[in-house]
Amino acid sequence: MGEAAARSPKQHRSRQTLQRITRAALELIGQNGVEGTTVGAITRRAGSSVGSFYARFDGKSDLLHYLDERIWETVEQQWSEALADGLADRPINELVRGLARLYADLDLVHRSARDAIGQALRGPWAGPSDAALRIRARVREDSQRLLLAKRESIVHSDPELAVETVCRTLESAASLFEPVSLEDLCAALVSHLVGNRDSSSSSGAPVEFFDIWS
């Protein structure tokens, strides 16, 4: 069987069983880690049977590869829904803030389970999966496209470089966001693009671009 493929269920009831197993596995791995999660515990949480599990997966490792892909499919789906929900129509200052919050939300998608599964499959020092790299690249490219569509509002001498800096900063800082620092970060990034027209933090004080890292 392919690393990320469960045996494809043909009937609606069977698809529901797979969804319950997937949801239960993600919940338990997020709570207890990979080593602390057994096939029996997953099937009990899913209200299913061990036989149903092995009808779909060759074993726990097969399940982990499947979950690794499904998590990033969920991230991509949420991103696509955000694009379809009028994200592109916002003015540049609101767009930066919307992207920041969205990046933070995407980073939370099954984060505990995602990290545990990644370590189990690739080791503690290994890089992200191919699916993670592909979807992160898509999010970054889409974000750059959205921001560059507001080029008339950008005063930076090199709009492409400025926008790339904004997107890579949002991506790198997504897991660190807290409400106050998120607002300060957004104010700094908007100022980086458009100058001082929207360069105040939530406290009203001007924010220098690199102050947030000091």
What does this structure look like?
By secondary structure, this protein is mostly helical. It has a domain at 68-213. It has nine helices and no strands. The protein has helices spanning 12-32, 39-46, 50-54, 60-84, 92-107, 111-122, 130-148, 159-173, 179-194. The longest helix has 25 residues, at 60-84. It is elongated, with a radius of gyration of 21 Å. The relative contact order is 0.10. Residues 198-214 have low confidence and may be disordered.
Query: What is the percentage of strand-forming residues?
Result: under 5%
Question: What is the 3D shape?
Answer: elongated
* SSE sequence, one letter per element: HHHHHHHHH
Largest sheet features:
none
Report Rg: 21 Å
Query: Number of DSSP helices?
Result: 9
Low-pLDDT residue spans: 198-214
Helix content: 55-70%
Structural class designation: mainly alpha
Question: How many β-strands, per DSSP?
Answer: 0
Straight-line N-to-C gap: 49 Å
Mean pLDDT: 86
Topology:
Layout: H1 12-32, H2 39-46, H3 50-54, H4 60-84, H5 92-107, H6 111-122, H7 130-148, H8 159-173, H9 179-194
